[in-house]
Amino acid sequence: MKAAIGIVDDHPAVLAGVTAMLDGQPDVVVAGTGATVAALLRTGASFDLVLLDLVLADGSTPTGNMRRLEAVAPVLAFTSGDQPQLVRDVAQAGAVGMIRKSEPPAVLLQTVRQALAGEPVPTPDWAAALIGDSEFVRAGLSDREREVLRLYASGETAERVAEALFLSRTTVIEHVKRIRAKYGAVDRAAPTKVDLFRRAVEDGLIEPEH
Question: Where are the domains of the chain?
């Protein structure tokens, strides 16, 4: 089954070009597009990943758009990259990575596939955005991801974390995948639960005696 991609961008030529490129692949398909997040959501489609332009004509903010998309699908920032603060904002809000619109199609496809697989998206711009915010490098997570990590790294199962935070087990597992990807993107790999415990202690989310 092909992975369903959503695109939020208010430039028709960009939408048309990226849609044609992705639709030509054997493993992905563009399931919906919109000039705004609201327009994308009105399509009623389900998505495995959303490409989000950070500067939209409706005046919305990346952080606000991330909040609307949080329960929909992981978000990959899709931007010109000329406003690093917006990239930092969307990173802290929970985006899984960033890709410049100017990148060659092969790079865009590779980045999309990495994001779909829950792997780190180690583009230079993304790393620079994280490193540019010292607190984010220390934490590396959105507020919800911090909550998930605090419980999960303390020894709780995915099921118990889900119950505590009123989430589904699948959502918790997806959060853990994103947490691991973010730590990997800043050279703080956490492939095991023990590693996640260490990262949580380093970032002050849990006390060492746990």
Answer: 3-131, 140-202
